[in-house]
Amino acid sequence: MKTHARVVVIGGGALGAGLLYFLTKEGWDDVVLVEKGELTSGSTWHAAGLVPHFIGGLSMAKLHHVGSELYKNLEQETGQATGWHGCGAIRLALNDDEVDWFHHVKGMLDYLDIECHLIGQEEIRQLHPLLIVDDVKMGFYTPTDGHTDPASSTHAMAVGARLGGAEIYRHTQVLDTRLLGSGEWEVVTDKGSIICEHVVNAGGSFAKQVGEWVGLDLPIVNMEHHYLVTENLPEVEALDHEPPVVRDPRASCYYRQEQQGILIGPYEKQGAQAWGLNGVDWSFDMELLSPALERLENSLQHAGERIPCWSDAGIKRVVNGPITHTPDGGFLLGPAAGLRNYWLCCGASIGITQGPGCGKYLAQWMVHGQTEINVRDMDPRRYGKWASGDYAVAKSIDEYQQMYQPYLPGEYREVGRPTRVTALYDDLKQKGAIYGDSFGWERPKFFAPKALNENYGFRRTNVFNIIGEECRAVRESVGIADLSSFAKYEVRGPDAQRLLERVCANRLPRRDGDVVLSQMLTRLGGIECEATVTRFTAEHYYLLSGAVAELHDFDWLVQHVIPGEDLAITNVTDDYGVLVLAGPKSRDVLSGLSDTDLTNEGGFTWLRAKEIKVAGIPVRALRISYVGELGWELHCKMDALSILHGAVISAGKAYNIRHFGTYALNALRMEKGYKAWGSELTTEISLVEADMRRFIREEGSYIGAAVVQRKKKDGVPLHLVYCQVEADDADPMGNEPVYDGDNIIGITTSGAYGHCVKKSLMFAYVSSGFQSAGTSFEVEILGKRRKAIVLAEPAWDPGNTRLKA
Ligand SMILES: Cc1cc2nc3c(=O)[nH]c(=O)nc-3n(C[C@H](O)[C@H](O)[C@H](O)COP(=O)(O)OP(=O)(O)OC[C@H]3O[C@@H](n4cnc5c(N)ncnc54)[C@H](O)[C@@H]3O)c2cc1C
Fold first, then answer.
1. C-alpha angle 657-794-627 in degrees, rounded to nearest 5
2. Distance in angstroms between the alpha carbons of the first and the last residue of the chain
3. Which of 188, 191, 323 is the pocket-test mutation for ligand 1 (most atoms within 8 Å of CB)?
4. What is the Å distance from ligand 1's center to 194 Cα?
5. Which residue's CA is the closest to the ligand 1 atom numbered 52?
6. pLDDT tens for each residue of 590-630
7. Residue 125: its H or E element
C-alpha cells in the first residue's frame, strides 16, 4: 500500500469508483481508493440499476446524462461489461400539474439535446403492451434511458481508473482522518496510514460516521428501500422487445423487465423507515435488511392495477437495502465547509445513475477549482447546522415518500419546519404571512389578506393578484419586508482590505460608509459568490450575501485567508435582523423616527451606509434597494427587531405601508433587471457573459482577473439578455429553451411577471448574434412558443432616478 498519494477516496461504491475514474481522466494518477469490503459491497451491489434522464433541474440532467453515456460505452474502453440495457423509459403523468412538469422538463432536455417525446396512451401501449394506462394523461418517453448492472458498471469504472494509474485497496478499513500541521491529511487504515493532499468521503451509508471524525454533522439519513422480482411470466416471455422502464406516480413504483419476469420497486408513500439512525455497524457489508412487505401493500396493489399480470405472479426475490437520502433528496458533492481539501461525494439516493456524473464534476472541481456545470444545488454547503438531527430525518423520510411526486413551484413542504425564525415570525404570521424556507430561514412568500390556500403550479396561481398588490404598494408608496435571512459577515483587521481586494472583482468601497456590490470569481473566472460590501472603516467591512449562500460564501472568504494575515471573519447572520424599507415614501417614514439627515443633500445618498438611531434603536442603515426604489436596509440586533418593526409600522401607517414577501421581491427585481446569484450568476459563466463589465475592476490583481480580462478582449460566445415575453397564463421561470426558428439558441435563467410594468420578463443566455436590443426570438413555456424581445434597459426606472431620489 502506498504511504503517500495526492488523493485518497474512502469508499468503493458507484460514487467512489466514478470519482476515481474521472480523476484519472482529468490527469491525476496519484490517486487511491480504500474500501473496507469488496467494491460495491455497501448499497451499490444490490441496486436495481435504473439510469433515468427525467429530472427536475438542468445541471442534474447534465449529470445524469454522464451516467447513461458512460455505461453504454465503458466496455469498449475497459473490456469489462457493464450490463447496460438501453430499453428506454416512460414516466406517467396522471394530472395536469404533471403534464405541465413534463413540458417543462422536455424543454430542458431538448436544450441538452437528450432525446425525449411526450406520448399518448396508444404509443405507451405499443411500447409497453403489459400496462393499463386508461388513467394516464401523458407519457414522457426517453429512449436513451436504460438500466445497468450496478456491480459490473462500478467494476468497469474501477478498471478504467486502474488503467489511468489509480490504485484500489480492498478489505482495508479507514479508521480515522486527521489533519496534519503541514495541511495534508493522514488517512489511518487498519493496514497503515496514507498521507495525502485531498481526502474524499464517498462512504455511502457510513459517510455520516466518516464525517464525524472531522467534526461534520452531515444531513444524511439511510432509508430502507425494497424491490421485488417475480418468477418468469408468460406475458413477458411473449414480448418481442424489452419494454421501457416505467415510473408510475400512482403506485409510486418503478417497473422493469428482469430476465423473463418483472422487477417492481415501490417508494412507499406512508410509513417509510429510516435505518441506522444511531450509526451503522462497520461490519455491515454485502448485507440486506429484513423485508417489511406490509409497508408496501398500498403501492403493490396499485402496481397490480397498472400491470395486471404481476398480481398473480410468484415472487422470486425480495431486496431491501439502505439508500442514503438528504433533506432535499440531492447528494452532497463538493467541499466540506471549514476544511481545506476535504471533499464530500455521498448522500446519493439514485447513486448508480449519479455516480459517473458526480465523479466527473467533482474531479473537475478538485483539479481545476471549478466545474463546467452550476453545482449550487449539489454543494454540501447548501446545508448548515440547522439541517442536521431531527430535521434531516423528518425531511429525508418525506423526500423518500414523495419520490415520485413533483415538487411544484411555490411548494415548500411543511415537514421539519420551522428551523430558523426571526423575532417577527409569529407577528407576521398573524398578519397573514405565508412562509417558504431558504437555508432553514422562514421567509414570507406573500401576505394573504384572509385564509387562502395557495394553488401551487407552473402557471400563474391564485396569489398572482396579491403579488401585484404588494408590488404596487412598494412602487407607489412604501413596503416593508423582513429579510433577516441575508447572510452577514464582519471582516475586521489590518489585512481585511487585502483579503477583499484579492477575492473581489469589483473595486472596493473607497470611503468609509460606501457600499459596493461585487462578485467573487474562481481562478477560471466563473462567478462563485456575490456580496454587498460596506466599508465602515478600512479595517472593518460588513458583507451581505443571499440567504442560501451563508455557509458557502463564509467558507469562500475563510478559505482564501493566507496564513499570517491579520484579520477575523465572523458570521453574524443570526445576530442581526434586517428590515427592508422601500418605496417613494420610505424617507418620510424613516425621517419621523430618526434625527439623522436622510436626504441626498445631507449626504445619505444611494450606496451609502451609516450607523444611526431609528426609534432610539442603533441601526446600520444601508441605502440600497434590490427592488429599485428609494429605500434602506435597516440592520439591528436581532433582539431589537420587533421593536424596530413596530415603530416603522406605526410611522408607516400614514403612508399605507404594506408588507411584501419574496414573490413580490422577485417580480420587482425582474422589473429592475437585477441579476440573481445562482440563476443568472453562476460558475458556468464570467462577468463578461453576464453583461456585467462595469463590475470588473481594471486595476490590481484578484482571483480570476486574467480570464475575465482575456474574455473582455476576445469576446464570448454566450450572452445574458433581458427580455420581455408575450406570455399569457404562465411566465418564464428558468430553464426554458430559447428558439430561433427550429434552432435552440439559448436557455432562460429566471423570470417573473412585472406587475407594475405589466410585462412578463425573463433573463436568458443566448448565442452570439442574438444579444442586441430589439432582437426577437421565441421561448418555449410549458410547450408553447412565445415571442421574446431583448430589452435595451431595465423595464423599470432605467435611469435610476427613483433609486437615487
Ligand atoms: C434496493 C435498492 C435499489 C436501488 N436502485 C437504484 C437504481 O435503480 N438506480 C440508482 O441510480 N440507484 C439505485 N439505488 C441507490 C444506489 O444503490 C445508491 O445510491 C448507491 O449505491 C450509492 O453509492 P455510494 O457509492 O454512495 O455508496 P455505497 O455503494 O454504499 O459505497 C460506499 C462504500 O464505502 C465503503 N466504506 C464506508 N466506510 C468506509 C471506511 N471507513 N473504510 C473503507 N471503506 C468504507 C463501504 O464499504 C461501501 O462499499 C438503489 C438502492 C437500493 C437499496
1. 25
2. 70
3. 323
4. 24
5. 47
6. 999 999 999 999 999 999 999 999 999 999 999 999 999 99
7. helix 121-127
Contacts of 521 (CB under 8 A, 6+ apart): 505, 527, 528, 686, 687, 702, 703, 704, 705, 707, 708
The count of C-alpha atoms lying within 13 angstroms of the C-alpha of 240, restricted to the half-sphere facing its C-beta, is 2
- Beta-bridge partners for 283: none
Ligand 1 surroundings by CB, under 6 angstroms: 10-16, 34-37, 41-44, 46-50, 173-174, 202-206, 210, 225, 227, 285, 319, 321-323, 346, 348-353
Burial 202-217 (b: 16+ CB within 10 A, else e): bbbbbbbbbbeebebe
Q: With contact defined as beta carbons under 8 Å apart, do 228 and 264 qualify?
A: yes
Report whether pLDDT(451) > 90: no
Residue pointed to by grid coordinates 452531515: 218
**Dihedrals φ, ψ of 610, to 5°?**
-140, 150
Our CA angle for 462, 482, 219, nearest 5°, is 85
What number does the ligand 1 atom closest to the CA of 11 have?
34
Measuring CA to CA, which residue among 443, 441, 464, 454 is closest to residue 411?
454
Q: Ligand 1 pocket: which of 44, 51, 87, 358 to mutate (most atoms <8 Å of CB)? A: 44
Q: Choose which residue among 8, 20, 43 to substitute to test ligand 1 binding: the one with the highest number of ligand atoms within 8 A of its C-beta.
A: 43
What is the model's pTM? 0.97
Ligand 1 atom closest to residue 352's alpha carbon, by position in its atom list: 11
> How far is the C-alpha of 21 from the C-alpha of 23, rounded, in Å?
6
Handedness of CA 737, 738, 742, 745 (dihedral sign): negative
Report the nearest atom of ligand 1 relative to the CA of 354. 11
Q: Residues 60-110: pLDDT tens digits?
A: 999 999 999 999 999 999 999 999 999 999 999 999 999 999 999 999 999
User: Could you report the per-residue pLDDT of 276-299, keeping only the tens digit for each?
Assistant: 999 999 999 999 999 999 999 999
Q: Whose CA is nearest to atom 51 of ligand 1?
A: 47
Q: Give the closest residue (by CA) to ligand 1 atom 25.
A: 13
Residue 548 grid cell: 442560501
pLDDT at position 452: 87
Element (H, E) at 320: strand 315-325
